[in-house]
Amino acid sequence: MVIGALMFAFLALPLCALGVDTARWWVEAQRLQAAADAAATAGVTYMPEDFAAASARATEYASINGYTAGSGTTVVVGPGEKPTQLKVTISRTVENFFASSFGVNTSTLTRSAVADFNGPAPMGSPCNTFGNEPAGSAALGPQVSALKTPPYAVCSTNPQFWGSIAGPETYKDQGSQFETRKCGGGEDGCSGNGTGAANIEYDPRGFIYMVRVAPAAVGQNIKLQIYDPAYVDSGGGSCNGGPVGTFSSSQNYRFPFGTTDANERYKNAANSFCSGDSDNAGRRFGSGSPAAEVPTVTSFALREPVDTLNPFAAPAYLPAQCTKQYPGYSNPNLNYLYDPSGGNYKVDVARVFHQWVTMCDFVPNRAGDWYIQVRNNVAIPSGATLDSTGAYAGNNAVVNQAGDDTSVKGNGNNMFGIRAISNAPAGAVSVASYERMRIYANADSATTTFNLVRVVPAAQNKTLVVSFFDVGEATGGSGGSVRLVPPADSNLTSVSNCVGTGVTNGTLSNCTISGITSASYNGKLQILRVPIPSTYSCQSTSTGGCWWRAQVSFPGSTVTDATTWTARVEGEPIRLIE
Q1: For the sheet containing 85-95, what is the strand order?
Q2: Fold type of domain 443-578
Q3: Torsion of the alpha carbons at 329, 222, 141 and 236, rounded to the nearest 10
Q4: b/e string for 217-230 if b means 16 or more Cβ within 10 A?
Q5: Could you state, in order of their start, the residue ranges of all structural domains in the chain?
Q6: β-pair partners for 149
Q7: What pTM was estimated for this model as a whole?
Q8: 271 and 264 in contact (C-beta within 8 Å)?
Q9: How far apart are CA 285 and CA 183, in angstroms?
Q10: pLDDT digits (tens, 9 = 90+) for 463-483
Q11: Nearest-CA neighbor of 503 among 484, 523, 486?
Q12: Using one digit for the tens of pLDDT, what is the confidence trace for 260-285?
């Protein structure tokens, strides 16, 4: 009994004490790890552009989970090994219970987490302009380019494509993968092969353009402008219809919004000013043969940043002037733009046709992705009046309408450009399409190499998936080609192990598809899958770095091609790597 008592006093009790304290350390360590994981994944969404915001958000989430710096707690936030990574280390000193009887009063526990961030895939532009950027007029301006090019970016005032959205009653085979209700017959992604079959890929929410604001642009005014925002039938890519003409510069003074360049701005031919709006004669749904033209209403709305990175859940930017609806105009003529003393002059058309129009001015109060939503199926409110920009302003349905309004019957193609003008340095503001974009090319015999998608090093060991829909609408020539080109600032000189699925299948040499014609690709979806090597690197600290490009070539052809492109990196955008 004496021996047993001695063993209990000198062995069992200390072991029990150690067991109680060890269990407490284990529980506390689990809480520390959960808090570090939450803080790292919350803050990493701001990497690599805004470490200050990433640190602040990570610190905030550590506090929410019970670990506020001070009083025995430390929270250390820093970048990981790569610019897209964030490391959070949390330490806490805890008091021991039984171990303190043996002189061990406290223990300090530390846990770390590292998160990596792919981020949403911006498409089309690393700069502050999206699509072609013609000169502004003397009346509305600015006449000089607003383009600012950050390091490593390749941008141009004439990338040889326009942003584009079709009316909901346009057939899908007009390059309209997501924004039209019906199919013309035989396209991919339809409920059947007949004319009028439902487009099962239809998304009534429209398209999203990201206005990415870096810390250097916070607090500075940003002017959002849309070029040619209203649908005005111009005869398509040839620009041989609509309110255009051929006249000498001596007549320019008669055009209030083209006093110095009307003879070029409204020229009856394809040029830098013509975006190529088209009524899609014969390829639209409705009564008559061809179906009667119904002008497309185009709606634009600005949304604020949102932590979930889901633009459709982002709150609307409340000032009414940042939500605009532009009515469409059918069968226009030159007199709409000409001489206000004449009876046919229409100032609302003249304000928007081949002009840069200010959607709104806003001053961002925080860095992040702001969003422009563009829709084709929101009705203009009854009794609404046009403002000084030729638009109806403030219709909350542009943001709040969750689904389709089938009473809206627009069936024309509206082409446009977007730019964000500010005094911030190059790279502080950029405009890009979000994960999918519909573009229109009307440059003949062109080899167009445009910015397709940004892929940062966090995509290592993942797969880039690129698709294009309904490419190949060109006449003449011997067919076209599409090639995926890696970033010039990356360590890749070519694309390996690229696999095609769709019209062309199998491994593609240098990720190139040749022999593209309208007959083979009309209404068809082609997918390219590119494994991103484990060694992939690029200049991700600049918004101009890490941009993959698409080279589209139709030599000797007349091109009038509307296509839809998508791009994404497979896998979770945010991942814990340790």
Answers
A1: 73-79, 85-95, 106-117, 574-576
A2: Jelly Rolls (2.60.120)
A3: -30
A4: bbeeebbbbbbbbb
A5: 2-117, 126-167+204-232+282-438, 169-203, 443-578
A6: none
A7: 0.87
A8: yes
A9: 9
A10: 999 999 998 776 655 678 999
A11: 523
A12: 999 999 988 778 898 989 888 778 88
